[in-house]
Amino acid sequence: FARNVRDSALPLQAMAGHAAGAVALSAGGHQNALKALRAAFELWLQVEAPYPAARTRELMALACRGMGDEEGASLELAAAREAFQALGAAPDMARIDRLALPRNTRKGLTRRELEVLRLVTAGKPNKVIAAELFLSEKTIDRHLSNIFDKLGVSSRTAAAAWAFRQGLV
Asked: For 106, which DSSP code?
């Protein structure tokens, strides 16, 4: 009986570790996030749950990247993508592919700037982008200005063309 109770608690422990890691990651505590996420990943493996294990690896990659470990991030993203592919999780694979872009391909754009750029390439005006991202229009204007500067372009059309050439959309 005690073994069954302990085993049934493993998924809850894994979920708690994943959540703790995600919170630490969002707060910029990359090392603490990685520690919690690695523990959660091991638990997901024990309970044979490949999808949440892959999602955990994705967060582990972001923690590695936040610590400047691009090689570790790349390895974690590749492993997560392989698991998503085996599961037929196409949207997850697409997200991993975007995250796996080398930094030089991203031209120094932040994750938020890439998000704004994707919405621009979809033809959305600043007002709609602001509403979708829960930001002010002034903030969207600032993001676009930063994007234009980093890409060396002067228009939304040129920025969108760059995004298409890079395969970002």
From this structure: T
Phi, psi (deg, nearest 5) at residue 43: -65, -40
pLDDT, the chain, mean: 88
Q: What are phi and psi of 79, to 5 degrees?
A: -65, -40
- Residue with the bigger pLDDT between 124 and 104: it is 124
pLDDT, average across residues 144-150: 92
Q: Tell me which residue of 64, 63, 20 sits closest to 39, measured CA to CA.
A: 20
DSSP the chain: -HHHHHHHHHHHHHHHHHHHHHHHHHTT-HHHHHHHHHHHHHHHHHTT-HHHHHHHHHHHHHHHHHTT-HHHHHHHHHHHHHHHHHHT-HHHHHHHHHHTS-TTTTTT--HHHHHHHHHHHTT--HHHHHHHHT--HHHHHHHHHHHHHHHT--SHHHHHHHHHHHT--
**Looking at 79-83, 101-105, 118-122, 156-160, which range is the least confident one?**
101-105
